[in-house]
Amino acid sequence: MSEQLNDGLKPLCGIVVCCTSIPSEIKTDLALKASKLGAIYTQDLTSQVTHLIAGKLNTMKYKYVAMHRVDMKIMHVGWIFDIYEQWLNGDDIDFLEFEKKHILPPFYNLLICVTNIPAEQRSEIEEKITCFGGKYTPDLTKDTTHLIATDASGRKYEFGIKWGIKVIRPEWFWQSIERGACLEEHFFSLDMAPEELGKGSWFPMQENEKDEDQQMFVKKKLPNRHLTKK
User: Fold this and answer.
1) What is the per-residue pLDDT across 47-102, written as a single tens digit (0 to 9) for each?
2) Three-state DSSP class for 28?
3) Which domains does the chain have, with CATH numbers?
4) Distance between CA 25 and CA 219 in Å, rounded?
5) Where does the record place the region Disordered (predicted)?
6) CA dist 63 → 103, 128, 143 (Å)
7) Contact 154, 116 (CB under 8 A)
């Protein structure tokens, strides 16, 4: 039996979706479900894309969006599948609530350690790492992805360099939270002057652009969706 869907009731009408670092079998299913929900799926990251679904933070598409496309939402892969399930059940869908729930956090799957950080600031960083999708480790291991440091000294720093771990200033951490995405680490190198840290790592949205973006995604409750089968 085929499902006849009313285009006017599709919850993702007007949405353009692109993927990065999503396994091919999952991506195929995701593209099909996105289309049924009214979205347009594209392989290429064009200017029309509104949402990037990312499996990892270190891809070229992700890095480009983090730096240049603050208007684009970076999503967890579960977003499309959860909306699809809710839609099939005929439940009301609050688009913005679903979007907020599935935003990919800036430290998704990162293992972060710190060194030479005052105890009070260290405690705050540890708490926020978890809040924003990462995992804090007090011990530096070869599995650590990032070492936050204030200067190039100490055993953690030495082994971080030896093991090829990304060693960055605390500004990387705070600006990534502000941006809502993991910023490229080379903009926050320990050998940079303080006034140069983060320059060019991302370009915040201007106030007039924020107003336009808000108007595009006015919160709305969508009615129950019923599928007619024949």
Assistant:
1) 999 999 999 999 999 999 999 999 999 999 999 999 999 999 888 889 999 999 99
2) helix
3) 16-104 (3.40.50.10190), 111-196 (3.40.50.10190)
4) 33
5) 208-230
6) 16, 22, 22
7) yes
DSSP 122-135: HHHHHHHHHHTT-E
Cα–Cα distance for residue pair 20/198, rounded to 1 Å = 24
Amino acid letter, 114: V
Q: Residue 218 and residue 223: Cα distance in Å, rounded?
A: 16
Q: What is the pLDDT of residues 124-154, one digit of tens each?
A: 999 999 999 999 999 999 999 999 999 999 9
Q: Which two tokens stand for residue 211?
A: 């107003």
Supply angle C-alpha 185, 187, 188, rounded to 5: 70
Q: What is the pTM of this model?
A: 0.86
Contact 164, 140 (CB under 8 A): no
Packing angle between helix 24-36 and helix 78-88, nearest 10 degrees? Answer: 40
Contact between 84 and 57 under an 8 Å Cβ cutoff? The reply is no
Tokens 């926020």 identify what position? Answer: 128
Beta strands in the chain (DSSP E): 3-4, 16-20, 40-41, 51-54, 73-75, 93-94, 111-115, 135-136, 146-149, 166-168, 221-222, 228-229
C-beta of residue 140 within 8 angstroms of C-beta of residue 156: yes
Closest CA to 126 of 107, 139, 113: 113
